[in-house]
Design a protein that fits this description.
Length: about 120
């Protein structure tokens, strides 16, 4: 099956959100690490093969930590790390994106969730 590459700005966004702090491999070269997001069927396979946190659990956990409504989660691989890119809707109507380690279930940078720029 074909994998979808991360959005061109995603590696920079992931580095900004602290993914580089999750492991030594990604800390050495956060800007050059190529990220790949998995299709739904591949996500199920990867979760089983690598004993990852289930997407629903990741969504609920992120929503509780950020105090926002969970919208979506994508399983991605950045180097040797598995992460969920999670979109949440804050109570003020802003879209918030966070990155969660798919092995530990911890937010990569829980103090600095990135809000999407306001639409003009």
């Amino acid at each position: 099956m074909e994998r979808n590459a991360l959005h061109p700005g995603a590696p920079a966004r992931a580095a900004m959100l602290g993914v580089a702090a999750m492991g030594p491999a990604s800390a050495q070269a956060p800007a050059t690490t190529k990220g790949v997001c998995f299709a739904t069927s591949e996500t199920r396979e990867e979760i089983k093969a690598h004993h990852l946190v289930e997407p629903f659990v990741a969504l609920k956990s992120a929503a509780a930590m950020v105090k926002a409504e969970a919208l979506s989660a994508k399983l991605c691989r950045l180097g040797d790390e598995f992460v969920y890119e999670i979109a949440l809707l804050h109570t003020n109507g802003r879209l918030v994106h966070v990155v969660m380690n798919a092995v530990t279930g911890k937010l990569a940078n829980p103090r600095a969730p990135r809000e999407a720029p306001p639409r003009t």
